[in-house]
Write a structure and sequence with these properties.
Chain lengths: 659, 659
């Protein structure tokens, strides 16, 4: 898979320039200085470039070329791709920019490029990519000298890619691959991640994306990768302003940030908020220390200990419990003014020996030991870093602060112990790494419940009675109801349903019934006739429903352009708009996933507050069933608002379905 | 004010040791190497220390000593303080630890120290402080060599203080003062901040606190300081675990993080979440660039631009609008593949000249220009830093990323342009600096409304009728009500109030009426008698209220140990517990402050959602009046839950008051 790009035996650089400031020259030199196979510069004007004979075209080389790196003016790219086909080239990297990211005419050129490449059987990365670095060659136009190692970096943006390469160089982080995705006209992020998933040298993958090229493939194939190794995702385009910028920039649809987050969770990836989080996470992933969610803090500064404990609580980690035996032992070994609890405060006059002593006592506790050292007159970071290094493999993480923190960090890096400058960074990175979850496969294929198709056939919107029937077919309960257009029938149905009632207009097209005064609550026997008269002036048909009390939950369904059917769950009623406390899932979801989403969006809290014991299980079941229905029937938009939940179950009270 | 500590003419170091690893020796050497006045080592065993003649005691010096720095074993501190009194010393810094931070016996020793010092007229910092640095001497036990400048640092924790000193040294940040507060037995953070507020060399103050020593003084006096210069606060002890650690550590009551945040806002300070935020803020405060809330991003990396725009939106700043004239000019000056919008994306091949060109075009726009450079083959950070420096004074902030970022940051620092490594850091710091507000003085002295005292006199809890009368005296509306103990009176009052009614039990002691089944909703004429019979079995007296529809708001009052009366406002009903979306204010608050708190806690959103136009003004008025009542009547706890708000106003429906 993608061998033609990542494992070439010979490489041609098309557009190889003699001008050392030009991209085409820099790439050639980078390839020449790293690749041990044959390298062919292609330049239609000169005879040699950088001491190698130059060829007029790919066809003119006359020998087998596996990979062509193309850096020619954008109007020449199509011809080069045609040549590549004729010359039997199987892989290409199109560096040239000016395609989809610049607007409609660029997009048309990109389509043409894709067609030509497909026709000729050439797989290609780009266009508008900054290139790749593999264990055997560097085909980028940045100068980098990174160590070989286990981290793979995939970046959609060139600048972001260059940043991460520089970061790897500065921090001595070893890389297996670097891949600039560019516009993903042919090879996409999913292709690249699958390749890296199978690559035995790659231990973990870090990805910067502005959009996903193919949502369903992402959801289906990425779990294969996350099962083998950790994959972290940073997404650009969170805000509207950011999304607009992403649109200009790589021509990708930025899509919904929240859905991307749901997708990453669903495929078992690690989601990070910003670049720093991504880089910090890399430190933790790249280390060999066995880390746990229980964290013990050891410090010579009470203040730093306080801040670290704050951050542990904020990030869903736990302060490690200090067993009495260990506490007694620490009390014996530490000076009187030290504190043997968590945080272990060694005191402002602690030296490196005292750190070593404390570490020996706690070394076998099954927890992460976050060792914070503030360089003071009595202790240096380097001394403590040495003490930590000697204890490596015991779940250690270092935070070093002082004039010699760089040197101390290098000592810890060399020992494979993650080193940070702020305890907040350490804690967040540990949390992101440990709190990722198993991927969930979305394998259910649409299998509509018998009878469902008959209800929806040929309709764009469903009337109340159809919507209720459909939900009941899917096992979602609705309160006793009737739709009537006659006052006598209304009275009869009201008696059957029972009081108090809710009466609402029931028009064919969906409207906001409350906003236009089309709802009557607390309807008793005496009011049925009068209300029917009022409401039937607004709509021929009137809905009668048993009035229920309980917590109002909102369940929404949308069809996302990228990820397809998705479900939203949150607190209902006005709180949907006011709080926007809604969490997302990609349909279909299981009851377990429904429960997770309900927890995130505080629905579970609302159902269980004041010990009321409302039916959480039924709610999760209803949400999961609605998510199945959305998939089966290709629902475009759905609002169940509210789903009323009480001790008897979860009941869909108001439903709007667009097909 | 505090001249005896900060402006001494002569200094004695008591406990000056010959051992160069001991705190008492390090302090002496630091003082000797910085102070130009007389220095007297005091040591009762040797005749000289570090080449100076040593004295047996303070009294034995026989010359005027202004400041005594005390670093002797804790059991000797009291005697030294007595000596100081006899020798006419007026100021002291007690370095020695082992006092309140270690428990009860230490606390008693600290009280004794305070008494002795007061009796002798000695003002002192500490105990358990790491000392101070002033423009004329260094009396700490860390080795620091910081530049002189305009930033003052105040730290309660020694380790945190050392950290900030190291940071100043590493970044070349110039300091006016550094003050380690220690246990604040005598001189408190308020004293120190007032001194620094009046100090003409101090431009801005950065404070790390774990607790406030005296809430009312903090609230009353800090506004004097923030009116003159920016003051930033970082609080340790946010979480329970953190607060517990803070308790161990400095013996201070960590107090409520949320109330501290409210207090900082109220006094016009800047509140930061963590150490990094504090340090980044210092960069912005320390620069001379005129910054604005509208931000224009200029970058050579689309990806970085996208992330920066995201962060701008997240931090209540605005993307600057690009005027068409400027956009046209940029289009002329920039290459075709660049984007002249916001972010201005100069393209991956931009060089420093292109940056300079773009900066010239946008220089006079009234906005912050966030210039992001990713070092690439065609451009280095240093080159762009030079271009930025030449344009300084135009609202510039730099973000430099690449191998030469350190050098570039130094160039920007030297030019007085804030320099960052992550655009997130830059954006957050700008936001914290610009989004601080004017201090609010809490000057209202308790002036109970006539008649209020008569109602509350001698009571611990108020019965429903007293609570309603009290609220009405304070101008807070309540729905029509009656408390009755007779079925016939109930019927008569019900007719007067109007239907539908709410009927509730009305016992003398407060109970959760709903939880024990003591509430009947939607009561019509027919039900009054029956419900009265049911409820009067549970409590002799029964409350009748007109039933209102509207949004439920929660208003709470507490009396905080540190800050005194405070008010909480949030969405009411079950959402108080579920969402904990509650914001805090320190009572009394104005209507304007009430409005701010209501905005923070989404109450305003709820009142205005779906264009319903519920009465926001009346709600703010009611909240402000309740906050006055809390202060006037010394209310211990108060719950108005709910305050029901609709188009007719805000009505207190259920009230619990503890005096």
């Amino acid at each position: 898979m993608l061998e033609q790009i990542f494992y070439p035996v010979s490489i041609a650089v098309v557009g190889a320039s003699r001008d050392r400031g030009k991209v085409g020259n820099i790439i050639l030199r980078n390839v020449m200085s790293t690749f041990t196979g044959k390298v062919y510069p292609v330049n239609d004007k000169v005879d040699s470039v950088e001491g190698l004979p130059a060829y007029r075209s790919l066809v003119g080389i006359g020998e087998q070329v596996d990979l062509a790196i193309i850096s020619v003016p954008k109007d020449a790219v199509i011809n080069v791709m045609e040549d590549a086909g004729k010359a039997g080239v199987k892989g290409a990297i199109v560096i040239t920019s000016g395609f989809r990211e610049t607007g409609d005419s660029g997009a048309r050129l990109e389509e043409e490029l894709k067609t030509v490449a497909n026709k000729n059987g050439v797989r290609f990365l780009g266009p508008n990519t900054m290139g790749i670095v593999t264990p055997s060659f560097n085909a980028t136009f940045t100068y980098v000298d990174v160590k070989h190692g286990g981290i793979a970096i995939v970046a959609q943006s060139g600048g972001m890619g260059a940043y991460m390469l520089t970061w790897a160089q500065r921090t001595g982080t070893g890389l297996s691959y670097f891949v600039g995705l560019g516009n993903q006209a042919d090879v996409s992020e999913v292709d690249v991640l699958r390749f890296l998933g199978e690559d035995s040298e790659t231990k973990a993958i870090f990805v910067y994306l502005e959009g996903v090229s193919n949502g369903p493939r992402f959801l289906e194939e990425i779990p294969e990768v996350t099962r083998r190794k950790p994959v972290a995702f940073l997404k650009g385009g969170a805000s509207n302003a950011g999304a607009a910028a992403a649109g200009t920039h790589t021509g990708s649809l930025a899509g919904s940030y929240e859905l991307f987050r749901a997708a990453v969770k669903s495929v078992g990836g690690m989601f990070v908020d910003d670049l720093r989080d991504l880089l910090n996470l890399a430190k933790v992933v790249n280390s060999n220390e066995p880390l746990r969610g229980d964290v013990l803090v050891i410090t010579n500064s009470g203040g730093h200990g306080v801040l670290a404990m704050d951050e542990i609580s904020r990030n869903s980690l736990n302060p490690a419990k200090m067993p009495p035996r260990i506490q007694s032992e620490l009390t014996l070994k530490l000076p009187a003014h030290a504190s043997p609890r968590n945080p272990v405060d060694l005191g402002g006059d602690a030296n490196a020996e005292l750190y070593a002593e404390a570490l020996r006592v706690v070394q076998d506790l099954d927890c992460t030991k976050l060792v914070i050292v503030q360089a003071l007159a009595t202790v240096s970071c380097v001394e403590v870093a040495r003490a930590i290094s000697r204890m490596r493999g015991k779940g250690l993480v270092g935070v070093v602060m002082g004039m010699d923190e760089d040197a101390a960090a290098r000592i810890l890096d060399a020992a494979g112990v993650p080193a940070f400058r702020f305890s907040e960074d350490a804690v967040r990175a540990i949390s992101r790494y440990l709190n990722r979850r198993e991927p969930r496969l979305k394998l259910r294929s649409p299998t509509p419940v018998p009878g469902a198709i008959d209800i929806i056939e040929g309709k764009q919107y469903l009337r109340d009675e159809d919507a209720f029937k459909l939900l009941e077919l899917y096992g979602v309960r609705v309160p006793p109801w009737a739709v009537v257009d006659d006052p006598n029938v209304a009275m009869k149905e009201a008696e059957r349903i029972g009081f108090p009632l809710v009466m609402k207009i029931s028009p064919d097209e969906p409207v906001h019934k409350t906003d236009i005064g089309g709802v009557r609550l607390n309807v008793e026997r005496d009011n049925v006739e009068g209300y029917f008269a009022e409401l039937s002036k607004m709509s021929k048909r009137v809905l009668l429903q048993r009035q229920l009390a309980g917590v109002e939950v909102f369940v929404g369904g949308i069809r996302d352009q990228v990820f397809g059917p998705a479900i939203l769950v949150g607190l209902g009623g006005i709180y949907v708009e006011v709080l926007r406390s809604v969490s997302y899932g990609l349909s279909p979801i299981s009851e377990q996933e429904a429960l997770e989403i309900m927890s995130e969006s505080k629905v579970v809290d609302a159902l269980t507050a004041r010990k009321r014991g409302y039916d959480v299980g039924s709610t999760a079941r209803a949400v999961a069933r609605i998510s199945n229905m959305i998939v089966d029937l290709n629902v475009k938009e759905l609002d169940v608002n509210p789903l009323i939940v009480n001790e008897n179950g979860a009941f869909a009270v108001d439903v709007r379905i667009k097909l």
